[in-house]
Write a structure and sequence with these properties.
The structure holds three protein chains of three kinds.
Chain A: H1 2-21, H2 36-58, H3 70-90, H4 92-106, H5 113-133
Chain B: H1 2-14, H2 17-35, H3 41-52, H4 57-82, H5 91-102, H6 106-140, H7 144-159, H8 166-180, E1 183-185, E2 190-192, H9 206-224, H10 244-265, H11 271-286, H12 299-322, H13 328-339, H14 348-351, H15 353-384, H16 389-408, H17 411-429, H18 435-457, H19 462-466, H20 469-508
Chain C: H1 2-12, E1 18-22, H2 29-45, E2 49-53, H3 60-68, E3 75-80, H4 82-88, H5 96-99, E4 100-110, E5 112-116, H6 124-133, E6 139-142, H7 148-160, E7 165-168, H8 172-180, E8 186-189, H9 191-200, E9 203-208, E10 235-243, H10 248-263, H11 265-273, E11 277-281, H12 283-303, H13 306-311
Parallel strand pairs in C: 1-2, 1-3, 6-7, 6-8
Antiparallel strand pairs in C: 3-10, 4-10, 4-11, 5-8, 5-9
The chains are: A mainly alpha, B mainly alpha, C alpha/beta.
């Protein structure tokens, strides 16, 4: 099922892409313009994803997958979004510390002392490496 | 003989304490830059430029060069251990390197990659020492039509690199090409598919995409697996190094891919990435058991890691003999040179022999240093695998995100890496192999640029294009190769169908 | 309270390092200028400069960010001729000449018209007569549609009344590679990119686009277009810019600081080493130059059909 959804996603995405590609000039084979490759690539993507969907509907076997803990999945994504939002607001060091702690707790690290210690040291070490040794500008 | 004398003279310069120290600092930094995902040679050297102002120019150049070739050693580390490519050139190492690590052969993969890097890197420097000027001249015979021919054949050959479903691979390549068209297009002067979003003008960064799809995708997969396998791998000392069998199987790929990478490195473009992919295809083609590829074939680590190192050495040739950088990494090296008042060009060898030969000799020294640094590191890195997943993965996630941020200093990039991470997660669950996507985004722009330039150069005539000696030969050989494989595949298919029909007939009775 | 802090900061400015946005990737001419200033900043500005590369979109991404930056003097940027050119195509988010404030012009650099030295043309006129006999045969390389080099090529073709085919490349280096392989016949490139090739005799420069000849002894023999009777003058320049509405005290401090830095012979030597020429202009003169360059180029891109070429890519 997921396989069909992913393929349909690509189908829809490439149809939208192809529509926007229509605004670019195709040119000719002798003198290709900005729309040449996009239209060819978009067209190919639409055809191939259609073929794939047909093939997937006709075949009965589905890819067997490991079970996924979807609540963890969504928690990680929510945490990630928060991290990215907070990144520029409260600075690298604090946001990274919070995010790391959050991830450790999601990953079922037991206790508080170890995660706290690890988050503090790793965010500090990354800050040090990137900001001071590699002179990257971090917020 | 003359070359040898000069090289020995260079060696005496490169082992002067200050230069040797510069070389050590350079390769250490290079290793660090290579290991850390995201941060690449270009930004590393750029960031270090201010600190080099007070240094002696030869020492500074030796240091910059050290960072440049040193970074190729570490690149494979995170690919092998955690499936997070440290840079685009190491994407292909994920395929078999990570599979090896999961089987407990991570140490062997790291060792082979370090040794392969050393041998191929040194091969590259030997090529640089002996043939630099003539090679640079012959590389110039390749113009846009030739690049286009190589890109086209490469795209077709590399599409069927991995995975089981040809249709899925084709779709991934096309999606890669599509992603490659986003951004301000200098060929036409307009922005494409940016929807008015400013930051999209820059286009998708290759490393960002690779780190998202492979790195974050892997982290999501591992962290959300319900049956969190908390079993810690036990690694014995002899697991750190390759078995006799593994070593034997790596020798030929290291030399073969070393030469291939060197040749690719002579051409303009992202040769680190293309050479590693091309080497993977080559090794799979020559392997006695191609079905092992993707499940931890040692050749799939030895080949690409060797190829991108010798490609790296080869990119120094046009820089030192023509004074023209053929790729981003050597462009920043050129800046480093110029800040120190050295302008490389055809006259460099004769006018500044001390600097030229000192630099070349330092590359031999540096490669040996890198081997000495990297072999013990294998042991340390493998220890990391003993760390429980629930501790390792969050740290790797943050490291990857930090690295991604440093590419453009952009927070929006972090959103993209998250998006590509989710995409990578789903791709993996549904049997789509993401490696061809990376090929699409690398080769796509080359293809488009090559086509537009070639057709203008050939006066809009496809015939004139096909009759250019080099371009025509490349296309002809490529087509023959593809046809051969297509026929081969078709005959196999027929066989299989016959067998399955016989089988099903048998079942009916 | 708030006003008081701003007042003291204004008086003590600068109290912390100053960020300089370089809107191109590390390693370009622009980046090198920024880094040369970084090398000298502490002495003249009292605080170090921190160079940040924000590449992409032909410089527009970095400049957009600068437009939106806080005008407190702690975020500056490097500008180039493209600040004037890009808005002319109507695709940029801001009109930079009115959204940014020049602090100083640091350098100027003309372009060179170069040909491979195995081609027979020793001067522009022999090139033109060849082009007239072989229409459509000559191709010139430039660094992207709408770039200064593209404008130059089209202007040259129009002034000389010949037809030249344009081949877009990603930058001066790619053009040089194709010139050396004789895949294209003409290139418009910054002097720095081809200086070593000209010295080695693999490329031949037929003209420079400056008002005067270059001062570099290796390149001083190249005549200008004007000397040869062609009215083609286009020089790229690099400068320091700030967001609009900079407090006057801070602006004066910056102007003074950069002026003395640029006047330092050591700084001049560093810049010349990079193949660039120092040419200082203060804020007001830079502003004037922006306007005059903008007017001139607006006319050129219309007359040479470049605007049309870009618009023809979209339907």
């Amino acid at each position: 099922m997921t396989e069909k959804i992913v393929t349909s996603f690509f189908l829809v995405a490439s149809i939208i892409y192809l529509c926007f590609a229509q605004h670019l000039t195709f040119g000719t084979i002798e003198s290709p313009r900005s729309g040449f490759l996009p239209i060819l690539a978009g067209g190919t993507a639409v055809v191939v994803s259609l073929l794939l969907i047909v093939k997937q509907i006709r075949s009965k076997k589905s890819v067997t997958n490991n079970k996924v803990d979807w609540s963890k999945f969504s928690f990680i994504l929510i945490g990630l979004l928060f991290y990215i939002t907070l990144f520029n607001i409260i600075g690298y060091l604090i946001s990274t510390f919070i995010f790391l702690l959050y991830l450790f707790k999601i990953a079922d690290t037991t206790g508080w002392r170890l995660p706290l210690l690890l988050s503090a040291t790793s965010s500090a070490i990354f800050y040090l490496i990137f900001k001071y040794y590699l002179a990257v500008t971090l917020p | 003989m003359d070359t040898l004398t000069m090289l020995l003279h260079g060696l005496s310069i490169s082992i002067m304490p200050v230069n040797l120290l510069a070389c050590i600092i350079g390769v250490l930094l290079g290793t660090l830059v290579g290991v850390l995902p995201g941060i690449d040679t270009i930004s590393a050297i750029a960031l270090l430029l201010p600190f080099s102002y007070s240094m002696d120019s030869t020492a500074a150049l030796i240091m910059f060069a050290g960072i440049y070739y040193g970074s190729k050693y570490g690149g494979s580390t995170t690919s092998i251990l955690m499936n997070v490519p440290g840079e685009a050139a190491s994407v292909v190492t994920c395929l078999d390197g990570y599979a090896m690590a999961q089987r407990g052969r991570g140490g062997a993969a790291l060792t082979v990659s370090a040794v392969g890097s050393f041998i191929a890197g040194t091969l590259g420097v030997i090529g640089l020492t002996l043939f630099a000027p003539p090679l640079a001249q012959s590389a110039l015979a390749f113009g846009p039509p030739e690049y286009f021919s190589i890109a086209l054949i490469g795209l077709i050959v590399l599409t069927k690199l991995t995975g089981t479903s040809t249709l899925k691979s084709i779709l991934m390549v096309t999606i890669g090409i599509i992603l490659g068209t986003v951004g301000l297009d200098s060929m036409s002067g307009i922005s494409r598919f940016t929807f008015g979003i400013d930051e999209l003008d820059r286009g998708f960064d290759l490393s960002l995409l690779a780190m998202g799809i492979f790195g974050i995708g892997e982290i999501l997969t591992v962290m959300t697996a319900s049956s969190t396998q908390s079993k810690v791998q036990t690694i014995r000392f002899r697991d750190l190094y390759p078995t006799r069998e593994e070593a034997r199987r790596s020798v030929v790929p290291i030399f073969r891919s070393g030469i291939l990478g060197f040749l690719i490195g002579l051409l303009p473009g992202p040769s680190g990435t293309t050479s590693s992919f091309a080497s993977y295809a080559l090794e799979k083609h020559y392997s006695k058991n191609p079905s092992e590829f993707g499940h931890g074939a040692i050749e799939g680590v030895a080949g690409p890691e060797s190829a991108n190192n010798s490609a790296n050495s080869a990119t120094m040739i046009p820089l030192l003999t023509l004074g023209i950088p053929f790729c981003g990494g050597t462009a920043i090296l050129l800046s480093g040179f110029m800040i120190h008042g050295i302008i490389p060009g055809p006259a460099l060898i004769t006018q500044q022999p001390d600097l030229f030969w000192g630099l070349i000799a330092s590359m031999y020294v540096g490669n040996i240093l890198l081997l000495i640094i990297n072999l013990p590191l294998v042991g340390i890195f493998v220890q990391l695998l003993k760390t429980p997943i629930y501790i390792l993965m969050p740290i790797v996630a943050v490291l990857t995100l930090t690295g991604a941020y440093t590419i453009n200093n952009s927070v929006l990039d972090l959103m993209w890496i998250a998006f590509f991470g989710v995409m990578g997660f789903y791709l993996r669950r549904t049997g789509f192999e993401p490696a061809p996507l990376i090929i699409g985004i690398v080769v796509g722009p080359e293809l488009e640029q090559g086509l537009i330039q070639s057709l203008i150069i050939c006066n809009g005539s496809i015939w004139e294009f096909l009759t250019r000696p080099i371009a025509g030969t490349i296309l002809a050989v490529g087509t023959a190769f593809i046809l051969y494989h297509a026929i081969h595949w078709f005959i196999n298919l027929k066989h299989q169908q016959k067998e399955t029909s016989i089988n099903s007939n048998l079942h009916q009775y | 309270m708030q006003t008081q802090t701003t007042l003291t900061t204004k008086n003590n400015y600068p109290t912390k390092p100053i960020t300089v946005i370089v809107p191109f990737s590390a390693g370009g001419g622009l980046d090198l200028v920024a880094r040369t200033m970084e090398k000298n900043a502490l002495k003249y500005l009292g605080q170090p400069l921190v160079v940040v590369n924000k590449p992409g979109g032909a410089g527009t991404l970095g400049w957009n960010e600068l437009v939106n930056a806080n005008p407190d003097g702690y975020t500056l940027g490097i500008s180039a001729l493209d600040v004037v050119i890009q808005p002319l195509y109507g695709t940029t988010k801001y009109h930079y000449p009115s959204a940014l404030e020049p602090i100083a012009q640091v350098t100027t650099l003309p372009f060179l018209m170069v040909v491979p030295s195995d081609q027979p043309w020793q001067d522009i006129n022999s090139l033109i007569s060849y082009a007239k006999q072989h229409p459509g045969q000559l191709k010139f390389g430039h660094a992207g549609i709408g770039s200064p080099a593209h404008i130059l090529g089209e202007t040259f073709a129009k002034t000389a009344n010949i037809s030249l085919e344009q081949v877009p490349f990603h930058g001066g280096n790619d053009i040089t590679i194709s010139l050396l392989g004789s895949h294209i016949q003409i290139g418009f490139v910054p002097p720095l990119t081809v200086k070593e090739q000209i010295k080695a005799g693999t490329l031949r420069a037929l003209a420079t686009t400056g008002e005067q000849r270059l001062t570099d002894p290796d390149l001083a023999q190249i005549p200008t277009f004007k000397e040869q009777g062609f009215d083609i003058v286009l020089t790229n320049w690099y400068g320091v810019v700030a967001p609009k509405e900079l407090p006057p005290e801070i602006k004066t401090k910056l102007e003074e600081g950069f002026k003395t830095m640029i006047a330092d012979p050591e700084f001049k030597a560093n810049i010349e080493n990079l193949g660039l020429q120092v040419e200082y202009l203060n804020s007001d003169d830079s502003k004037e130059k922006w306007i005059s360059d903008g007017d001139k180029l607006a006319k050129t891109i219309r007359e040479t059909g470049i605007l049309e070429q870009i618009e023809a890519q979209k339907s």
